[in-house]
Amino acid sequence: MNKKTIGIYSTGFLLSFVFILFSGANLTQPSFTFPPDEKLVLSHSLYILLMGISALYAHYQTITPNKPLRFTTVISAYCKGTLYCLPFHLPLTFLAAYFTDNDFSKESETLWGVHLKASLLFIAILNIYFSVLFFLVKKGNTSQKAPGLSLSQGFILGSIGQQTVHIPIDEIVFIKKHKHKVLLYTFDHRKIASPEKFTVISQKLHPAKFHLLSSYFLTRPEAIQHIEPTEGHKYLIRLAEPYNEEVTVSAKEGEAIQEWWHQEIINS
């Protein structure tokens, strides 16, 4: 883990530690027995499960927000997150138990009840903390510009994994808006994520050359395989291989694109 990751987790768990100690623990009768009751073991398991989910959320939303979501990477991030959390969990458990009345015969405040409450509160606070942190990190990332390089110079800023790349405009076949990022499709069949805003790219990248398809922009007519009208005053546009995308647009937009497409084919 780098210093940024350690700082994120340390601050989050420091905040949660305060809430665990003051979430209804009985400070007047400190006691602890070993081995713990099976209900306590159950609450421990739930605690670790929820903690792993929070760690997974933090891992994706604050540390690697642009990483593609795959099943293997989800499992990997969950396991890593749980392992990162485990060293914090053990001392907090013993401290919470020490400052809690663990008489399970009472129907009032029992150790597993307090611990379970503290666990849920822990998750709520941690998720709020990481949500705010994610907003700040994302806001900082979107405001960053490539040093000494801009769209007007014929490049688009992109990223492949953790590597930052600059894609020449002439190599792009089309761009696609996808959730909170833009995907760049190139002639050599690469699909590259870009932190640049879709509207910024569409306004600055040779407007006469790019044709809006809802959340798409095309740069070349050969990217289109077929255009046909469909029901409901819509047009269906099929993109050529290897992209194999289908886009539905309005009739007005479809007619304009079809006219441009036919004209480009005739001219070529």
From TrEMBL:
It comes from the Bacteria. One of its GO terms (molecular function) is DNA binding. Keywords: DNA-binding, Membrane, Transmembrane, Transmembrane helix. The chain crosses the membrane at residues 7-28, 40-60, 81-99, 119-137. The keyword Transmembrane applies. InterPro entries: LytTR_DNA-bd_dom. It comes from Rapidithrix thailandica. Residues 162-262 form the HTH LytTR-type domain. This is LytTR family DNA-binding domain-containing protein.
